[in-house]
């Protein structure tokens, strides 16, 4: 119960700090359930998570996939401008909403701010930055906006390619449910350069690919900002939309 209350306080604080931001799920209120404990209520995302949306719509055009990722980055850039860091950005923490009930017009909304400003062992390892994974090993929980940028680029890869990046090291039988061991092995392979997230060739322009790949720099201070990534993805979405007409 203590953990759930801690997460609730983090999410409530995150919701308060992000009120009115575009692409962050609109805060409605909170509830207290006798069995489940306290919880945040946000606007319902009718389209489901990004994972569910892309699974149902496998053949949507590339420019729409890019716009999904760009909207996510815009939302996170707004959070960063208010000194709020999400900490667990992945396709299951982003939902699709239809403003005013218009199905043809969607918006991307960020949900689950329970990890905001406080790294949890529950962060999704394959989308987490190296410094977050390292925190799982050392307990040194220093991280910031550049960690979100790594995760944003991971989600962008997923949106563009339609396939989640899942390193083989995280699938090894000896890991099981041992998060500590998973963090150790994953971090070692990243440090050694044996695995590296990258876009397949020719899916986007070289300039856009360069911005995405720059987000995977091991040095957090050398990564682009979330706003810069949003701008690059939006520009590429516009370019591909023009080519498709």
TrEMBL record:
Superkingdom as given in the UniProt entry: Eukaryota
PROSITE patterns: PROTEIN_KINASE_DOM
Single Gene Ontology MF annotation: ATP binding
Domain Protein kinase positions: 1-238
SUPFAM superfamilies xref list: Protein kinase-like (PK-like) (SSF56112)
Database matches in Gene3D superfamilies: Transferase(Phosphotransferase) domain 1 (1.10.510.10)
InterPro entries in alphabetical order: Kinase-like_dom_sf, Prot_kinase_dom
UniProt entry keywords in alphabetical sequence: ATP-binding, Kinase, Nucleotide-binding, Transferase
Protein name: Protein kinase domain-containing protein
């Amino acid at each position: 119960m203590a953990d759930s209350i801690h997460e609730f306080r983090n999410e409530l604080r995150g919701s308060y700090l992000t009120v009115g931001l575009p692409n962050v799920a609109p805060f409605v209120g909170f509830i207290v359930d006798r069995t489940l404990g306290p919880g945040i209520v946000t606007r319902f995302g009718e389209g489901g998570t990004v994972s569910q949306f892309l699974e149902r719509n496998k053949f949507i055009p590339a420019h729409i996939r890019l716009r999904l990722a760009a909207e996510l980055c815009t939302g996170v850039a707004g959070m960063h401008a208010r000194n709020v860091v999400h900490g667990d950005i992945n396709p299951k923490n982003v939902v699709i909403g239809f403003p005013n009930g218009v199905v043809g017009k969607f918006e991307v909304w960020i949900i689950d701010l329970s990890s905001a400003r406080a790294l949890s062992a529950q962060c999704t390892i394959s989308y987490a930055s190296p410094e977050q994974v390292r925190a799982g090993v050392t307990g040194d929980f220093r991280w910031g906006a550049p960690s979100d940028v790594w995760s944003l680029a991971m989600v962008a890869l997923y949106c563009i390619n339609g396939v989640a990046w899942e390193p083989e090291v995280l699938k090894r039988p000896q890991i099981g449910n041992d998060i500590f061991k998973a963090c150790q092995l994953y971090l070692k392979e990243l440090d050694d350069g044996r695995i590296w997230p990258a876009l397949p060739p020719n899916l986007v322009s070289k300039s856009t690919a360069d911005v995405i790949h720059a987000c995977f720099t091991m040095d957090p201070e050398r990564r682009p900002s979330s706003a810069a990534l949003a701008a690059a993805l939006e520009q590429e979405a516009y370019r591909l939309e023009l080519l498709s007409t």
